[in-house]
Every structure is written in C-alpha cells, then in structure tokens.
C-alpha cells in the first residue's frame, strides 16, 4: 500500500530531450496479477542499456533517435496479491484491482468527459490513474503501448462504443495506422498469429479492434487517443495471467522482436516545427492532415511548447496545414497554406516545418 510507481527513461542525452526526438512509452502490470508485461519491460530496460554499452548498431540507433520511457508496473499493490501459477482472476483478492479495489483499466476519462475541465475529469480517480493522466498530458508523447495478460493478441482503439447497440469494429480516424501498429507487433511475435497457443478466443492475424472483442469503458488506450496526441494499443502477451517463473525466458523470446519493432514505428509519418511570421515557435497550433487518395481526415494533433509536431502515417499522398483556432480582433486568424507531401516505403519519414500567416477568418 502506498508503493511508488517507478519508471526509467532511456535515450541519448537523457536529461534533456533533443528537439523533435519522439517520445515513446511502455507500461506494464496495470492489472496486478497480469505479470508478464512487468517482467518483459524490466528485461527490456536492461537489454537496451546493455546493448547501447556494447554498441549494438540497432539498439544504438534506436536510443540515439528516440526517447523511451518504461514503467514496468502500474499496480504494485495488486502485484503483491497475485499468486504465481494462477492463470485467471479478475478481482481484488487475485490482484487484478489496485489497493482501492478498482480496475485501473476502467478508471480513465472517456469521450463522455471531453468537455470537462482537468479538475472535473480527474475528480475521484485512483492515485495510479491520476499519475498516468498527468504523465500523459504533461509530455508530448507520440506512441505507447500497455501490456496485459490472459490472451495473446494486439488490440487497438476504440475500446468503447458511442451508440447503444453498436457492434463490430469501432474505427478511429487513424484506423489504418492503428491496425498497422497491431499487425506489426503480431507479425514479429513468435506465436501471436498461431491460434492454437491460446484457444479461449480466435483473433484473425493475431489482432483485434478493442470494441469488437468486447467493449469497455474507461480504458487507458482510448484516453491516450482522445485526450492527447499519443497513439496507444494494448498488448496481451500471455495466455496465463501469472505463469510459473520458468516460462518467462520463453515469453521474452516470443516478444523481443515485436517490442523493438514497435518502438521503431515512431519514426514514420511527418514531423516538424511550426513558426509564426516572426520566426518564433508556436505552441498549441493544430495540425490537420488529409489523405488525398482516400479523402480520410485524420485526428488533429497540436504542437508542443517548443512548436514541435509529429503525425504517424503510412506511405501515401497527403496534404496538411497548421492553424491557431480563433479569430483575432482584426477578423484574421493564423494559418499556413495547405502543403502536399508524399511518404514512400523507402522514405517513410518526412521532416517539414510550417510558418503561420494571418488570413481572413472564414465567414
């Protein structure tokens, strides 16, 4: 009770994030009796630091270009109540819930709370939930994942429906990239696509939309997408929630390549800086992106305090613009022009800066 939630950030020049270096986050063990994520992330942190020291080319490239935060356990109190070898359990006694007897993956604000103030949507939340909310909102995260157990699948948003009786896939505006993220993890996992390893459910290609699997209200992955720029998926990485310790090395082997490959996905799409006409960086400018082939309009992202933006996208042809919402006194607002760009398989990342000019407000 009252244990600290500990995490580590791994990056080159770790005490000061380099401009435009993207931030990625892994969180494990939010259900205390689902322990494999905790073990994988502890080992991953050691592996990244050790690999950098040994000058492993892939690891060094990843750490030099990425700000990686790893939080092995979000629910240390629940973990202490878990029992090794017990593969099921969904309550306080078995360790799923925190010390406040709450399922932390049902405790986050939802789309119903989007119009509320920070004080309103954090009122009554558990301390672990509040800590993650603050972390998510205070930094310009680009990509994240949370690790669970009890199934073997990569699940992507949305987790929650908005209309009564809705069924099937509940797709976000960024459905194509979310599906790509889930498929990347499943494709590089040694058994996630093999349905004979965990027969409780069947997941085609080892992935699922969260709501289509089973709808839940108050999940962390939907909160990330709705309340921040970040894109998060949920990774179920062991059929047994708390397997015997001798299974851990095998599960590390099963997940290692997927964990590294997933981190690398943050380096695609478009990123850059937004300036005003005087050359100063602009905070909270909205970045709008449209796919010129499909016509899809993606969820807007906003610039950081340093004027940075990142938008994860698949190869394709797009246009984008930046603007600061709201008319000024003179009947103008600050906006860039639409900019067309293309992302290719052999060049998936574009760095592009934009400058805002004053334009007449739409009538």
List the helices and strands and how they pair.
Layout: E1 8-10, E2 23-28, H1 36-53, H2 57-65, E3 67-71, H3 76-81, H4 118-122, H5 127-138, E4 141-148, E5 151-156, H6 175-188, E6 207-209, H7 210-213, H8 220-227, E7 231-238, H9 248-264, E8 269-275, E9 286-291, E10 301-302, E11 308-311, E12 316-324, E13 332-335, E14 339-343, E15 349-351, E16 354-355, E17 357-360
Helix pairs in contact: 1-2, 1-9, 6-9
Structural overview:
By secondary structure, the protein is an alpha/beta fold. Helices cover 26% and strands 23% of the residues. The chain contains nine helices and 17 strands. It has a seven-stranded mixed sheet with strand order 1-3-2-4-7-5-6, sandwiched between helices. α1 (36-53) crosses α2, α1 packs across α9 and α6 (175-188) runs antiparallel to α9 (248-264). The chain is globular, with a radius of gyration of 21 Å. The protein starts with 7 loop residues before the first strand and ends with a strand. The relative contact order is 0.14. The mean pLDDT is 95.
What would you say about this model in short?
The chain is 26% helix and 23% strand.
Q: Mean pLDDT, as a whole number?
A: 95
For the biggest β-sheet, the strand order reads: 1-3-2-4-7-5-6
Query: How many beta-strand elements?
Result: 17
Give the DSSP E fraction (strand runs of 2 or more residues).
Answer: 15-25%
Sketch the major β-sheet: 7 strands, mixed
Q: How are helices and strands ordered from N to C?
A: EEHHEHHHEEHEHHEHEEEEEEEEEE
Helix content: 25-40%
Tell me the distance between the termini: 57 Å
What would you call the shape? globular
Helix/strand structural class = alpha/beta
Assembly state of the chains shown: single chain
Number of contiguous helices: 9
